[in-house]
Design a protein that fits this description.
The protein contains nine helices and no strands. By secondary structure, the chain is mostly helical.
Amino acid sequence: MSKPADATVPIRRSEARERLLGTAGRLFYGEGIRGVGVDRVMAEADVARGTFYRHFNGKDDLVRAYLQATDQQIRERVSAAEKEISSPADFLMAVAHGIDEEVCGRGFRGCPFINAAAEYPDPDSVVHQAVLEHRRWFREVLRDAFQRLGAADPDQSADLMVALRDGAMVAGYLGDARAAGATLVRGATALVSAP
C-alpha cells in the first residue's frame, strides 16, 4: 500500500535512492511507466520495501523524481552550453544538433516527458505537473535565446522550436530518426535565420 501521492517527504539522498532512480529510469524509459511496477523496480535495484518508502511516497512520487532527475540532467547540459556559447544563434543551433543526436542515438524511445504525459493525462497529477514544469523551463530558455538574437517574435519562435523538437522526438521514434533529426535542424536554421 502506498502513501498518498501528495504527501510531502523530504528528499533523502542515499545510494539506495540513486539505485532506485537509476533502475526506474531505465525501466520506465525502456518499457513504459505503467508497464513497470514498483515491486520490479525494488527487486532490480536490490532495495527493500521499507527503504523504498523512506525515499518515495509511492509510484507516482518515484515517477516524478525520475522526471525531475531527467530534467536536471538536461538543465545542466543546457547551462553548460549557454556558458560555452555566447552567440544566441550558435546556442540555438547547438540545442537543435543536440536533439538531433539524441533522436538518432542508440536505444532512443521518444521523449521521456511526452511519454510520461501520454501515460498520465490528468493535468493535476504530480507526474503531469513535472512534465509541464520541464516544458515551461525549456520554452523559456529558447524564448530568451530568440530574444537575445533579436527575433521579431521571440515567443512565437520559441513555440515553433518546441513544436519542431516535439515532432522530431515522436517522428524519430516512430519513423526515420535521421530524417526527423535533419528536419528539426533545417527548421531551427530557418528560425534562427529569420529576421
